[in-house]
Amino acid sequence: MSNEKEYVNEHFLDRLIREELEYSPFDREMCTRFPPEPNGYLHIGSAYAIHTNYTMAHKYGGSFHLRFDDTNPLKEDLEYVNAIIGDIKWLGYDPGEHIYYGSDYSETFYNAAVTLIKRGKAYVCDLTAEEMVSYRGTLTEPGRNSPYRDRTAEDDLDLLARMRNGEFPNGSKTVRARIDMSSPNMNLRDPVLYRIIHAEHYRTGNEWCIYPMYDFAHPIQDAIEGITYSLCSIEFKDHRPLYEWVLNELGIASPPRQREFGRLNLTGVVTSKRFLRTLVRDGHVDGWDDPRLPTLQGLRRRGFTPSSIRSFVEAIGGIRTESTIDISLLDHCLRQDLKETTVSVMAVMHPLKVVITNYPEDTTEMLPIENNSDNKALGSREVPWSRTLYIERDDFMEIPVPGFHRLIPGGEVRLKGAYFIRCEEVIKDPDTGEVIELHCTYDPITKSGTGFTGRKVKGTIHWVSADHAKKADVHLYDKLLLEQDISKRDSGEWAQLINPESKVIVSDMLIEPYVAAAVRTDKELRFQFMRHGYFCVDAKLTNDERMTFNRIVPLKDSWNRKG
């Protein structure tokens, strides 16, 4: 065995697979798969499952498959297929040529059902869904055999063929496994393998009207593709005996193995597809890519990077059970990714006018400012300075509170990358008393970068030139829901749970001109707006006339604070 030090950072799934592979249980190379149903968009929890399957395959020199579990025509759509493929490639887990569809195996599923019926391991049942529930029993009481369980194989094969030919209506018949109605595992109490669905399939049209259940199709698909490990979340653990039963009864040699890992949840985030679909369908959010949603498309539009999401799932490691991770970890991974890669620019969200009374009119001075203090390689840019500026309104306080070190009447601060200014006069609205303008003077010898070592100031604030600033809309985000536990809620109440401040729009934010010039050439850019956080261009809303930015994350964890 290799040096044990190599395995210090292994999590339980690593160790389990490594130890099994040492006994060479397979006649083929390592192969895993991610099998989404194309009935919605992927979310942050999906990223963990994708990462687990992809990294395990590549760690052992194998391949990773993307396979669509598209055997329910009532819910599936090509829109979701394309979105899922795009999301997985964006994350960096490209399956390459290994993209498969369960619907391509329809004939194999049918033949498998025929085989099981011939072997006395399956039968056609006429019980309705309601009757089947009553026959199934409970956790403390065994189930009862279906009255149709003892038909002959010949009769069942005839009924199966007629089901395929479309002779029976939806719900009138099913194909069920013949296992054990008294099994303590409810999944083994003659589970349904096939059902009738008269609906057009997005890929096969009306060729089929019977479709396999996931628990039947899943192991067969894995066997066809040569999957070695079906790595799935913990809720499928009780389904593993059925997975193994199907493979065993079909006589699959060197069968794939199902192994489970923990299910990922995040604080303050709901990933229920039913809930997300309702929000989108009823117009409570701006589509599946709404930046408030935990979908990968929503996170991407909000400005999250693929590398930050990969870092997040890597940091979680292996989890055995259903676990809830604090969302601040995801934000931390994003900040670490953006800290040294984004340009830090000046943007004023709530502007207060400042006139530099001793600076000449109709004069513009270009001042060099570094792009990122943590990464000198990003260089610098030139920012225009003029007589009239804007600063943040909360950077001035007429009657300062203790500890306030920004601009006050008679006080002095440095403007970022520029000069010291002193507030000489406060102009107020005569009707409301609101401060509307400051008259200040600047000291030309205090210019940044000149080595000035005279008097000190405690505060440095950002600013933009009034004559050069560009306007933009910004979206600030908070939690989507007022409460996170929707399990006991009726779906009709969900709209009432939406946080009215989950998206706050600030219009006419003033941004230095460098940003507008950069956005014209690249709408995928991200910036740090000094003191406000990390922002990205919302390419969906930005056009030649107006820029829109989404705040990706504040500079510090503020998930529980207002936007």
TrEMBL record:
One of its GO terms (molecular function) is ligase activity. Residues 345-443 form the Glutamyl/glutaminyl-tRNA synthetase class Ib anti-codon binding domain. InterPro entries: Gln-tRNA-synth, Gln/Glu-tRNA_Ligase, Glu/Gln-tRNA-synth, Glu/Gln-tRNA-synth_Ib_cat-dom, Glu/Gln-tRNA-synth_Ib_codon-bd, Rbsml_bL25/Gln-tRNA_synth_N, Ribosomal_bL25/Gln-tRNA_synth, Rossmann-like_a/b/a_fold. Its EC number is 6.1.1.18. Residues 460-538 form the tRNA synthetases class I (E and Q) anti-codon binding domain. Keywords: Aminoacyl-tRNA synthetase, ATP-binding, Cytoplasm, Ligase, Nucleotide-binding, Protein biosynthesis. It comes from the Bacteria. Transmembrane segments: none annotated. Pfam families: tRNA-synt_1c, tRNA-synt_1c_C, tRNA-synt_1c_C2. Coiled coil: none annotated. Residues 31-339 form the Glutamyl/glutaminyl-tRNA synthetase class Ib catalytic domain. It is an enzyme of class 6 (ligase). Belongs to the class-I aminoacyl-tRNA synthetase family. PANTHER family: GLUTAMATE--TRNA LIGASE, GLUTAMINE-TRNA LIGASE. This is Glutamine--tRNA ligase.
